[in-house]
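hey m, so remember when u said the tokens were messed up on ur end? i reran from scratch. heres the input so u can diff it against urs
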Amino acid sequence: MVVFFWPGSACFLQRSWFLIFYEEAVMTKVKELVNNKQVELDRLTDVCESYLDDINILSQAVDYLLQQRSEGKLSQVHGGQFRLEGEDILLKEGYPLEVLIEDNGVTGWQIGRLMFDHTKDEYYFIGHGSKRYMLKPGMLAAVRLQSIYGQSSCQSHHS
């Protein structure tokens, strides 16, 4: 038996109302999902914004570590300044530097900065935990070559 639905018939009206209610229920669920997704998106945005500084610090650290590294012994020159043997670079205060340090019987590379004590008129290295290490000629150190040219606190002297 075939049943035809045409406008005006009771079956057509029942089916139409059912579809309207069904569509409204589906739309309500869709709106809930969209709202839930919006909450998730808002949370993700908040997380990204709150960790943006950390992400930038990580990005800068990775960029630094990807730069070409030149390693050599420190030698002391005029005025107590240091240079890295093998690279004709005069190291100055504030310059990023990596130094092989022995600390509490453990030897390892530390990344930090070359600093100058104006009261003692001498250079030192600030490494992990802001610990201060006096530099001595012959210590093994390294520089990232791209960092050299981006720093105004260092000079390169070519022979």
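this time it looks ok to me. The mean pLDDT is 76. if urs says something different then somethings off w ur setup not the seq
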